[in-house]
Amino acid sequence: MNNTALSADQPRGRAWLATGALGISAFAIVTSELAPVGMLQALAQTFQQTAAQTGQVVTVYGWVAALAALLSVALPARISRKTLLVTLMLLLALASLAAAQAPGFPLFMAARLAGAIAHGVFWALIGSVAVQLVPAEKLGRATAVIFGGVSAASVLGVPLASYLAAVTGWREAFTVISLLALVTACALLRTLPALALSAAQPLRSCGHLLKNPRLLTVYAATACIISAHFAAFTYVEPLLRDVRHVPAAMIAALLLVSGLAGLAGNVIAGRLIDRHLKPLVCFALLTGAAALGTLALSFAMPLWLTGALLAVWRAGMAIVFVGLQTLLLRRAGAQTAAASALYVAVFNAAIGSGALVGGVLLTMTGLPHMVLLAAVIIAAAIALL
């Protein structure tokens, strides 16, 4: 697996096969990341922990992934990026298998942290790889394909892992995730072409990126939008149950529909974002924020309207995720690797911060006010773009 520059006449079909393999990789990574959310009670019972203690698995995972992404800019250029991507998926497979076999909570946590390292470095590399796979005018579509794996994980991967945990046990669910990661590693090995050298950069190069106002606005918008989104999304179940008074039996169905709406948002982004990036992202921000804010209001509404608002929120945010990544890659120029690493670090740190701040505000102000504030912040972020 040499690391020579990607030739200009790289077969177009193979490039899109490789892009699809990266999308499947995103599916496996995000499924692994979020799987414990649907297994917290089972994990807590197995390891004799409280639900709050077990929930630290998700929190620490996000912060370790952010740190790994930031440190990835210093990876030596002599390490083949194709080899590295395949190795990271193998590490995720081994980490998931180790989690499935862990006899105690400390070893389970250690296995999860190994997976978080693979997660952070993989996402830091994926932007610079996408730039090499497809022409610049198709970059938005390629990003949509990759982020489609993220949406598919929330629609199919996480519910399926939760279902397997309920039916066969959480250890079996992590074993299936391990097999999925192994299959994905094989797909990357077969489809990825040789990738151009990416020189190692000192960590201070990330500080230099923050002096670029065009990149700084993307990072600031990402921090605001992702923190606000996950402050609300972390508590979407009590939002539907306690504020919108959705019957418990219907919550799972609404979440499934909203996840499908997220996939639709990816499709829309893939078709339009290369030609209409800023207008599309701004429109998605406003409509998503308006839908979220309406969900936080206490007036009565029919169930179908609640589902529609939830779907608009998720579809809008899916478009925004693709748009922010595409905007970053367009503005990064020759600094794609470092810019992507810093972006992934900001993104993952914002997820953890959003969930933490959302919990604090929930206690201080109540759920409706917290969600309404999140909607206002998402809408206000349009000023940064």
UniProtKB/TrEMBL annotation:
> What does the record say about its membrane topology?
Multi-pass membrane protein
Pfam families per the UniProt record, alphabetical? MFS_1 (PF07690)
An example GO CC term for this entry is: plasma membrane
What superkingdom does the record give?
A: Bacteria
Q: Which UniProt keywords apply?
A: Cell membrane, Membrane, Plasmid, Transmembrane, Transmembrane helix
Record-annotated membrane-spanning stretches: 60-77, 84-103, 109-131, 143-167, 173-195, 216-236, 248-268, 280-305, 311-329, 341-361, 367-384
Q: Which residues form the Major facilitator superfamily (MFS) profile domain?
A: 1-385
Location in or out of the cell = Cell membrane
Keyword hit for Heme = no
Q: Which GO terms describe its molecular function?
A: transmembrane transporter activity
- Major subcellular site: membrane
Give the matching PANTHER family: CHLORAMPHENICOL EFFLUX PUMP RV0191, PURINE EFFLUX PUMP PBUE
Q: What is this protein called?
A: MFS transporter
Give the organism, scientific name.
Answer: Candidatus Pantoea soli
